[in-house]
Design a protein that fits this description.
This protein is mostly beta strands. The chain contains one helix and twelve strands, in the order ββββββββββββα. It has a four-stranded antiparallel sheet, with no helix packed on it. Strand 7 and strand 8 form a beta hairpin.
């Protein structure tokens, strides 16, 4: 992922840890020391969400890219991290739940189960509109 003059990547050569490399210099640093299976970065480039996968203490985590401070969000296995301007979505590994984190109104990272509304129209409503 390229954002804010950096390239972020999982390094297979270094036990699948996450690295950040500057586009304009030789500044390359390991930013996540744990083995990871997936990650994504917020649109503003301030937060990195990642899944550790060391077969012992797997967890879903947040990394503040300004301070490089990491926070555990949930223990277990998660996948498919998707980020919009105000939300982070991710799925449990077994697809039993989709979680959402609202990032707009709070500095507290608190995931909840995502329950989307049913937006399908009733057949009667379709007939009224025609």
């Amino acid at each position: 992922i390229i954002i804010n003059d950096y390239i972020y990547y999982i390094s297979p050569r270094d036990n699948y840890t996450i690295w950040r490399s500057s586009i304009f210099s030789d500044d390359n640093i390991k930013i996540v020391n744990n083995r990871c299976s997936t990650f994504n970065i917020s649109n503003d480039g301030k937060s990195l969400y990642y899944q550790t996968d060391d077969n012992k203490d797997n967890s879903f985590n947040h990394l503040n890219l300004n301070t490089l401070e990491s926070t555990n969000i949930l223990d277990g296995n998660y996948k498919q991290i998707s980020i919009t301007n105000n939300y982070v979505f991710f799925n449990s590994f077994d697809n039993s739940a989709t979680y959402v984190i609202n990032t707009k109104h709070s500095n507290v990272i608190s995931p909840t189960i995502f329950s989307p509304p049913n937006l399908s129209l009733k057949p009667e409503k379709l007939n009224e509109d025609n």
